[in-house]
Design a protein that fits this description.
The protein has about 325 residues and is of the alpha/beta class. The chain contains 11 helices and 16 strands. Helix 5 packs across helix 6.
Length: about 325
C-alpha cells in the first residue's frame, strides 16, 4: 500500500498527489512553510492526511525554531478551511507544545515529533477500525460506488471509504467498485482508480454524470464516501458532487454511507449551513492538465466541497461504531 506521508531526518516526505497516476514522485518539505504550501497546493489532500501533515508541520516548525508556535499554527491553519481534521491536529499539537513550555527546548522538540508520528500511527489504526465497522454493510456480489478519493492517499494509510471497501474484500466478499472521476480535480480518476488497481480490486472508472444511470440499474449495492467535516445534525461536507450522488442514491433506494474518523466531527456546528466551503482557482475548471477546455475569460465558480443534508445519509461509519439517525444523539454518544 502506498506511503502517503512520513517523518524523516530530511524532513516531512509525502507523495505528490498532483502528479499521480502518470508518475510517482515524493517531495520533501524541510520547514513548516513548505508543509503549508503542500497542503494548499493539493500535493497532499484528504482530511485525515491533511491533519497528519499539519501535525508534522508544527513539529518541524518547532524543530527548526524559525517562528513562534502561534505563527506556525496560524500559517498551517490558513491553508484549507473546510477539513476540520486540519484544525483538530493543530490544536492537539498546540496544546501539547504549551504544556511542555517549561521543559528544555530539545526535549520539547523531541516530544512534539513523537506526537506527530503518533498521530500518523493512530490514523492508520483508526482507518482499519472504520473498515472493520463498515465491512458488514457492503452487500456481497454487488458494486460499490465511491466519489473522490478517501483511500490510503487521503489518510496516513488504508483509507476511510476505501478502508471499508478493502475490509469487505479482505472478509471474502466479491465486490467491484465504480469510481466517479470527480471533476474538476479528478481525484477519482487519478487517485482512487490508481489505488484500487494497485490493490487488484476490480474497478471501473465512470464520469460524474453517469452516477444516476448506474444507480438506477440495480448493479450498485451501496455508496461509500469520505468526509471533510460533519456537523452535529449529521450534515456532511465532502468533495463537490457528493450531494448529487446522495440524492440519486436516495431516489433509487441505494444506501449512502459516510466513512470518517471521530476527528472529522465538528459538534460545535449545529448544521452544515455553518461549514465554511473552500473556493478554488478558476483554472481547475477551465483547464485540464494545463490544456484550456473553456473560452478565455469565462466566469467560473469552483467550490471544492458541497454539503449533503443528513436526511440522505443512511449511516456514518466511524472507528467507534456506526451512527444512524437521529445523528445529534448518535454522533454525540460516539464522540464522548
Amino acid at each position: 500500500m502506498v506511503e502517503t506521508i512520513e517523518w524523516t531526518d530530511r524532513g516531512v516526505v509525502m507523495i505528490d498527489q498532483t502528479r499521480l497516476p502518470r508518475e510517482t514522485v515524493y517531495v520533501t518539505c524541510r520547514d513548516y512553510k513548505e508543509v503549508a504550501e503542500a497542503i494548499r497546493g493539493m500535493v497532499i489532500r484528504g482530511a485525515p492526511a491533511i491533519g497528519v501533515a499539519a501535525a508534522m508541520g508544527v513539529a518541524i516548525g518547532i524543530q527548526k525554531g524559525e517562528a513562534s508556535l502561534d505563527t506556525i499554527c496560524d500559517t498551517l491553519a490558513a491553508t484549507r478551511p473546510t477539513a476540520v481534521n486540519l484544525f483538530w491536529a493543530i490544536d492537539r499539537m498546540k496544546t501539547l507544545a504549551r504544556s511542555l513550555s517549561s521543559r528544555p527546548v530539545e526535549q520539547q522538540r523531541a516530544l512534539l515529533i513523537e506526537e506527530a508520528r503518533r498521530i500518523k500511527i493512530e490514523d492508520v489504526a483508526i482507518c482499519r477500525a472504520i473498515g472493520a465497522n463498515g465491512a458488514s454493510l457492503v452487500p456481497d456480489g454487488k458494486v460499490v460506488l465511491t466519489h473522490c478519493n478517501a483511500g490510503a492517499l487521503a489518510t496516513a494509510g488504508y483509507g476511510t471509504a476505501l478502508g471499508v471497501i478493502r475490509a469487505a474484500v479482505e472478509s471474502g466478499k466479491k465486490i467491484a467498485v465504480f469510481a466517479d472521476e470527480t471533476r474538476p480535480f479528478l481525484q477519482g480518476a487519478r487517485l482512487t482508480a490508481w489505488e484500487l488497481q494497485q490493490d487488484g480490486i476490480e474497478t471501473s472508472l465512470i464520469t460524474d454524470n453517469m452516477a444516476g444511470h448506474f444507480l438506477k440499474s440495480g448493479r450498485i449495492g451501496c455508496v461509500v464516501v469520505g468526509a471533510d467535516r460533519i456537523a452535529r445534525n449529521g450534515d456532511v461536507a465532502n468533495k463537490i458532487g457528493t450531494y448529487s450522488v446522495a440524492v440519486l442514491a436516495k431516489e433509487n433506494n441505494v444506501p449512502f454511507y459516510v466513512a470518517a474518523p471521530i476527528s472529522t466531527l465538528d459538534l460545535t456546528l449545529s448544521s452544515g449551513d455553518e461549514i465554511p466551503i473552500e473556493q478554488r482557482a478558476a483554472a481547475e475548471v477551465t483547464h485540464v492538465f494545463g490544456v484550456p477546455v473553456a473560452p478565455e475569460g469565462i466566469a467560473v465558480e469552483n467550490p471544492a466541497f458541497d454539503v449533503t443534508p443528513f436526511r440522505y445519509v443512511t449511516a456514518i461509519i466511524t472507528e467507534k461504531g456506526v451512527a444512524r439517525a437521529p445523528y445529534e444523539e448518535s454522533l454525540t454518544r460516539l464522540a464522548s
